[in-house]
Write a structure and sequence with these properties.
- By secondary structure, this protein is an alpha+beta fold.
- The protein contains 17 helices and eleven strands.
- It folds into four domains: 17-56; 66-130, no CATH class; 145-163 and 237-393, ATP-grasp fold, B domain (D-amino Acid Aminotransferase, Chain A, domain 1); 173-234, Dna Ligase, domain 1.
- The protein is globular, with a radius of gyration of 24 Å.
- The termini are far apart.
């Protein structure tokens, strides 16, 4: 006689269906039907349906999101292929063997394929590899500390971000699709130079600065309205000590914070310095450098690095000496960070870009999923991993 009923294991798909049913406040049958519809129409998996909140999107928005997912997938496959080829060329090993080794290291450390190639991971021992601040480590922190999904959208959209943090922006700004000509002229009355940023962009892509001609405001209004959705902001006048490294770009402090137990912890800070004629300070594309700071004092604590890990004591373009930098308004900066970190509940692991104007710190933008690369790159050629700065928060 059977005394116990065999318990049916819940599959991964069943769990995803249950999550959607809960979010939609409907039956599991209805949730599954909605998920199957999107899967049939757009090829979106149950996992992606949940991850990207497809239940909140209109059919047209679902179509656009599915296209972006496919583009992201294709780009990821390209990165894998290029990274494997790069490592195979450097080591002389068969690409199949290389891919297997990277996959094994990925399981152990969370290293991305591109990071493996960038950091020359094959040269490191397993102990050295385990000490690196990888993308997987960053993802773990994001999942642990950024539990407010709606809050994440604030940091993904520059217009919503500016509205949310308006109190702390300390500069003129407007959304280019929600302004009349009269409002535009009023906001631009005292401006000499402004900067346009697409709503959703990263690494400074699409960012462009414009001189303001007060005699041609009608034409400028039409121009900005014709641009894709974005924000137009007053250009920040940098403190002279910060401006000397790059005159065109606003040289910001990449600040990584973790808000825990009602305390704001600045776990890392580094100055991003623009290169050449670029108006952005992004190290990946502007040819600039990043310089790690002592978070207590605001003084430089390490040589600057470009994206390839080459180290500098002087800026590679302007020739300015970097090692004597003391960021102005450092005490005010730390107080400012404490205020910023308390604005959005449930988003507690953030990468901020903070400018230092002639009047004090100013937030430019922030990311709920900050890239670990800016933290790790200055140290990888010295075989120094930076995971230790977040070890206590994992």
């Amino acid at each position: 006689m059977r005394l116990f009923r065999k318990v049916k294991k819940t599959s991964a798909n069943d769990k995803l269906i249950a999550e959607v049913a809960k979010n939609m406040c409907c039956s599991k049958r209805k949730a599954k039907a909605a998920m199957d519809d999107v899967k049939e129409r757009l090829g979106v998996s149950y996992k992606s349906y949940v991850k990207y909140d497809f239940h909140l999107l209109s059919p047209e928005a679902q179509k656009k999101k599915a296209k972006r997912i496919e583009e992201k997938k294709a780009n990821a496959q390209k990165i894998v292929a290029e990274s494997v080829a790069k490592v195979a060329a450097a080591t002389g090993e068969d690409p199949v063997v290389v891919k297997k080794k990277i996959s094994e290291a990925r399981k152990r450390t969370g290293i991305g394929f591109d990071e493996y190639a960038k950091y020359e991971f094959w040269k490191l021992s397993k102990e050295e590899q385990a000490a690196f601040y990888t993308r997987g480590v960053g993802n773990a922190l994001t999942e642990k500390y950024n539990t407010n999904k709606e809050g994440r959208s604030i940091f993904a959209n520059k217009s919503i971000f500016d509205k949310t943090f308006d109190k702390y922006l300390n500069r003129m700004w407007f959304f280019n699709k929600e302004i009349t000509l009269e409002e535009f002229k009023e906001k631009m009355a005292d401006q000499t130079r402004v900067i346009y940023k697409p709503i959703i962009s990263s690494q400074g892509k699409g960012v462009e600065a414009f001189d303001v001609d007060q005699d041609k405001l009608d034409e400028m209004y039409e121009m900005f309205c014709s641009f894709p959705k974005g924000v137009v902001e007053e250009c920040i006048v940098q403190h002279p000590e910060m401006a000397r490294f790059s005159k065109n770009a606003v040289n910001t402090i990449r600040t990584v914070t973790i808000f825990k137990d009602d305390k704001v912890n600045i776990v890392y800070a580094a100055v991003k310095m623009g290169g050449g004629d670029s108006v952005v300070d992004n190290v990946h594309i502007s040819g600039g450098v990043v310089t790690p700071l002592d978070v207590e004092t605001g003084k430089v604590r390490h040589k600057a690095s470009d994206f390839e890990g080459n180290l500098y004591t002087h800026h590679p373009v302007t020739g300015e000496y970097i090692m004597d930098l003391q960021v102005p308004f450092w005490d005010e900066y730390k107080e400012y960070m404490d205020k910023l970190c308390r604005v959005v509940d449930g988003i507690n692991y953030i990468g901020w870009d903070i400018a230092i104007s002639d009047k004090g710190p100013v937030v430019i933008e922030a990311n709920f999923k900050p890239s670990p690369s800016l933290i790790q790159i200055p140290f990888f050629k010295e075989r120094i991993g930076m995971k230790h700065i977040v070890e206590d928060y994992l």
